[in-house]
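ugh ok fine here u go
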Amino acid sequence: MNVYVIGVGLIGGSMALDIKSNYENVTVFGIDSNEEYLDIALKLKIIDNKALISDLADADFVILAVPVDIALVLLPNVLDKINDGTLVFDVGSTKFPICNAIANHSRRRNFLATHPIAGTEFSGPTAATLGLFEGKTNIICEVEKTTFKLQQKALGLFEKLGMRIRYMDAKSHDKHIAYVSHLSHISSFMLGKTVIEKEKGERDIFDMAGSGFESTVRLAKSSPAMWTPIFRQNKKHVVKTLEEYISNLSKFKKLLESDNFDAVYDEMQSVNKIKEILNNFNK
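structure:
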């Protein structure tokens, strides 16, 4: 089995490691614009060989794991180079733009739009982790536009990697992911910015930072090169979530200013039920 991973960073590299650990007689090829990343991936045995887009004719799987703006440019070219039995899937955090970009491509049936909800704040091949996808949700969009035989091929792979499958239309995916992922990253970036600006005048502030701050600001270590294109592609939904988030922050601020701490308590108490929701979701 020949697997080509385009983008040998955290997600692409982790998927390569899992595939190599779950399949015998598999060769993983790496394609990346960053030659240093390819060298590291070879050294870490994430990939077996380097390759080019022009080499995809013998591919069984092609995994597109690059920033979402680059994926829009690469995917049509990738589909032009594959054979009729190749399955191509992407792992991007926005789904409607990429589905729309190849809607009329002659090999649309060879493409599956996926979004594994997995990752860390780190990037590059050194961040690749074996078992990253175990128990994680993988959102599949527009599954009906992929030929059934290749759908089954994909599901077999995802099952071996331990992923749970959810189906969703691309527009709904982008709307919902803005709330549970994109907003989280913006909040983390802006909290980090607020504290960094405060630190300029008060050098001891980080000495007071505990685990709560660390966990909340963790996502601020994520790659701006990856997240800026995501925010651009999902701008409409991200702006809407920000408006709602800012409205809630403003309301909370007014409650504090008016010394209405009973209402402050009620606000926080009403949100505590999220523990139960998350516990049920993770079962």
